Structure formats: structure tokens, C-alpha cells
Amino acid sequence: MKIVLEHLTKKFPNRNKKVGGFVTAVSDFNIEIPDGKLIGLLGPSGCGKSTALNLICGLEKPTEGHIYFGEDDVTKLQPENRGVGLVFQNYALYPHLTVQQNITFPLENLRGKDKMTKEEMAAKALEAAKLVQIENLMERKPSEMSGGQQQRVAIARALVKRPRVLLLDEPLSNLDARLRLQTREEIRRIQRETGITTIFVTHDQEEAMSISDMIVVMKTGVLQQIGKPQEVYDDPVNLFVAKFLGNPAINVFRGEVKNGKLYIGEEEVMNVGSVSDRPVYVGIRPEGFIPDDNGALTLNLTRVEVMGRDTSVVSTHPAAESETVRSIISAEDAAGIGGETVRFFLKPYKVFLFDTETEERIQFDPEAEENIPLEAAEAAVQNTAE
Ligand code: ADP
Ligand code: MG
Questions:
Q1: Are 3 and 166 in contact (CB under 8 A)?
Q2: 222 lines ligand 1 (CB under 6 A)
Q3: Given the DSSP bridges, would you call strands 38-42 and 197-202 parallel, antiparallel or unpaired?
């Protein structure tokens, strides 16, 4: 089921009575979510993710705008008539009911032609339970299960009516790290198997990036960017999105463009061709550094951290916005690093420029520029390949 949000807006009276006025939790959202996809709705706490989800499922009424499921305008429909399955962070299972009873609960209230016999309900519950692999736990009470198992029950309950749309609001937040990984893979599998259009809300960029077909990044109620996870990572529209995606985070420097050259501090670090003279923020992804004795950018070396597969060079720079700069390089390259300073060439497509006022991206064509001496580039490719 395709979902279309048209000028969707939600204003709440400010909870802080002293400040008064309204809080715009969702501001003029326009998105088209394709049928059968898993969408990650991503942003920091308080940016309006839950409100957006509650508008889609009908728990909140929009101040303005429309919601369509396929061709149907569902804006005025009650939640129970929208055909949505909902899963929250805190499972919200009935503690006195068994797994079986929790899953069949949404079916008990069906009336008229939809009314089911006990046997039909049991069959539906078993089908949903099998999908989330808890069919051998049907007689347990929630208190006799792990958090991960309880969340599976909640997912089975959301699926038992075969919803048109599945909405998950931070479903993994109450699970420990290992279960979180496992359960998110499960959600991906279940979504693929059922083909139900799913919106997955999270503040965790890695979670969203790892399982979503598309991510929607929002900030203070405003949609920032929508796209495939890798595309958004590789081509962020503004500094907020660039900083929000990626772990370790992007490194941000204050820089200056003069005569088509980018300067960080006194050093000329790259050609940026067509960009006019101006101050800029320079974002450099941790994987965008090529260590080289003649490198263009000099950083003050703090330490080299070897963490399993990755070697991370931690350094500082007076023009850096953060206390430390992190570069991820190959173990081979790291072998030569030591002393007071470390020098890098920059991979042009891993470097983004932003306006210092608006923080919007400033485009330049990285392909057209000769930024890395051939020898350094070849050595880097070789080391990555090994
Ligand atoms: P998120 O889920 O991204 O953490 P929310 O959608 O819960 O964000 O909240 C977005 C904003 O709307 C916050 O500023 C929050 O305080 C405000 N808000 C949410 N619900 C209400 C409400 N019922 N009344 C007043 N303000 C609300
Ligand atoms: Mg929330």
C-alpha cells in the first residue's frame, strides 16, 4: 500500500505554559512512500517522529494536510478503520493474558461479516506467531519471556489482522545490544516476507541505515532529506544530515575557499573548481583520508587506535569544530604513522562543503579536480584491496 502525506502538519499547544503558543511537531510534510518498502523515519529525540507516526495511524488528527493509503484519503478515518498495525517501544502486552490471547486480542472485537470463530482466531494467531518464530511459546505469560520475545509477540499482534501498513515506533529501544541487532534483522525478514509497507521510527542512524529501503531524515518537525540510506550518506543536503548519519561522525572544519582552492587553516587542501570565494564548513568523512608524508592537511596526532578490522587515527586541528578528528584507515597505512603530526590527502567525494550561514550544501564537482597525486591514490587503492 502506497502512503502519501500531503502538507501534513501538526501543531500542539505548548506544554510549557510560561512560553505559551504552539509547537509545530510536524511541519508541512510531503512524502510519497512506495508500496511494499521499509522506510526508516530518523531524527533526534523530540523532532516529531512519533507525532508523524501517530498522524499516519490516526491516534492524532492533523492540523492541516492529508494522508492517503493508495488512493483512499484516510485523514478522517478512525485508527481502527485504517488497517494499520502498531508496535511501540514498551511492547504494551496484557500481563494477565497468554501469548496466544495477546495475539488474538485484536480479532476478538471483529463484528458482523468479519467475526471469527475461536478456531479461526487460533489459526490466525498461529500464523502470525510462526512469522515471528514464537509459535512454541503460545501458553506463556509476558512476564515469563525475554524483552526480545515480548517484542515479537507485539509484532505478531500487530500483524494478525494483516494490516495494510505496519508502524513501528522505536521498537528496539528497550532491548539490549545483541537482541537489538537480532530483532532488527527479524523485522527486516518479516517485512520482506509479508511485503507490508512499513515505517520504522528510530533516533539511531545505524539502525535506520541498516534495514531501511529508504530513510526520511527530520529535524524539529521539518523533513530534511529522503532517499536510499547510502545515497543520503554520500550526498547529504545540509550539515545537519551529514552530521546525523555515520559512525564515527563526519569531521567538521572551518575553511575558506579562495580562487577555487579550499583552505583549512593555512593549508591548501583541495581544488574545488567553481566554488566562489567564501568561508565554508568542510565536512570530511572518517574514511576520506589518505595518509601520506606529503599530504595536504596536517593534523596533530593524538593516538592510533586499532579496533578489530579498523584502524582509527585520532588527532586534533585548531580549525576543527570538534575536540578530536577521526580518520579510519587501513592497518597497512597506519604502520607508518607516528610522531607529533600526521598528514593526509583527502578523497574529494568524501569531502562536503556547507554554507556557514544556512548550513546548506555547496556543490562542487569532485571528479573534475586533480586532488590526489597519482602515487598516493594508487597506494591507497592497493591497501584497501588487500
Ligand atoms: P519524537 O518522537 O521525535 O521524539 P515527538 O513527536 O514525540 O518527537 O514530539 C515532537 C514535539 O512535539 C516535541 O517538542 C514534543 O514536546 C511535542 N509534543 C508531542 N506531543 C505533544 C502533546 N500531546 N502536547 C504538546 N506537545 C507535544
Ligand atoms: Mg518518539
A1: no
A2: no
A3: parallel
Calculate how far, in angstroms, residue 328's C-alpha sits from the geometric centre of ligand 2. 33
Instruction: From 221, 240, 259, give the residue that closes a domain.
Output: 240
Q: How far is the CA of 365 from the centre of ligand 2 (A)?
A: 38
CA 361 to chain centre: 19
Cell 569531521 belongs to 251
User: Same domain, yes or no, for 226 and 318?
Assistant: no
For the Cβ of 26 lying below 6 angstroms from any atom of ligand 1, the answer is no
The residue from 173, 207, 240 where one domain ends is 240
Q: Based on the fold, state whether residues 195 and 276 are members of the same structural domain.
A: no
Same domain as 308, residue 211: no
The closest of 223, 218, 192, 191 to 43, measured between CA atoms, is 218
Which residue's CA is the nearest one to ligand 1's atom 7?
A: 50
Do 216 and 123 share a structural domain? Answer: yes
pTM value > 0.90: yes
Strand arrangement of the beta sheet that strand 351-355 belongs to: 267-271, 261-264, 251-258, 278-284, 351-355, 361-362
Ligand 1, residues 12, 17, 29: which to mutate, most atoms within 8 A of Cβ?
A: 12
Which atom of ligand 1 is nearest to 13's Cα? Answer: 25
| CB of 47 sitting under 6 A from ligand 1 | yes
Structural domain total, the chain: 2
Are 104 and 220 in a shared domain?
A: yes
Identify the CATH number of the domain in which residue 22 sits. Answer: 3.40.50.300
285 and 226: one domain? no
- Residue with the smallest CA separation from ligand 1 atom 26 is 12
Q: Are residue 216 and residue 262 in the same domain, yes or no?
A: no
pLDDT bucket at 384, cuts 50 / 70 / 90: low
267 and 232 share a domain? no
Nearest CA to ligand 1 atom 23: 12
Q: Please, which residues have CB within 8 angstroms of residue 31's CB and are 6 or more apart in sequence? A: 3, 4, 5, 216, 223, 226
pLDDT per residue as tens digits for the range 82-136: 999 999 988 889 999 999 999 999 999 888 888 999 999 999 999 999 999 999 9
Say yes or no to pLDDT of 381 above 80. no
